[in-house]
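Working notes for the structural subgroup meeting. M.R. asked for a predicted model of this chain before we commit to crystallization trials. I am recording the input and output together here so anyone reviewing the notebook later can reproduce the run.

Input as submitted:
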Amino acid sequence: MINSKEKNLKKRKSGHLDSQIKSSNNKKMETEEEQLKNSLFEAIKNDDIEKTKLLLENNKEKIAEIINQRINEVTFLHLTVANSNIEIANLLLENGAKPESADNNGDNCFHYSAKRGNLEILKLLAEYTKNKTKDVVNAHNQLGWSVLHSAATAVKDSDKNWAIIGWLLEQGADYNYKVNNKFSEDLSVENVLSQKDWSYAENYRKIVEEFKKKENELNKRVPSLNFSFQDLTEGKEEVISKLSEDAKKELENFLEIKEEVTKNPSSSFLKKQLELSKERLIKEIEKTKEEVQKSDLTARLEISPWKYFKY
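Returned structure, recorded in token form:
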């Protein structure tokens, strides 16, 4: 007959064994995750597109958990951008890699690409940051360097892609920002470029001045659409002229219905039609504003400030 002491001893041994099995399973899981991370890191490091694609396709759930983790102080996307491999970069982005993620030094993937003078990858990254792009290009690393400073380093060190300077300005990079840390005080992008030659700083000044001039011209256009609904219904020509053709047609429709309502104030049907027309007109006004903003963006892309650099 088993006494209570023996029972308790068996229970403790059984519990200890379960704990060991659980611990062993956890270690196995950790090992599998580490193995996947190391395999993916090596595939990216060696620019092995097919192996990278295979690892991503066969490990969807685990990839979602590790895609933005750091390994050897960088994320997988940092490593890809450092290698300037746009195909692998695209694969990682499609699987949830975040361009705004920082490495151990605070550099995001825009810093990496700008420093390597790769405009094509920068544009790809921007497709995934969208309305956050301005914030990302103005992010600072641990030394306070912006993405624009990194781009200036690329130009200074190896004459790489001056077009990146212009592109970053178009995305909203702050050309007035200066670095202040224990190594530098009030270090502007112009200062970085002047370390190479005074003419580099001069070219940059021309780029910024041209950009500011164009920016001021463009910024005057959008506020001009901030008219009131009353301005429209009163038929102010200077306001109506700013509308799209569809908006003008809807305005005519609205005014016709409004006149009918004036003649038949008790008609609930006409009042309802007037409200619906007003809603459509407001939507057309918003479309007009969007079109103006799009044309502004097109104009910004035509600034081409890098044309000032003499090759």
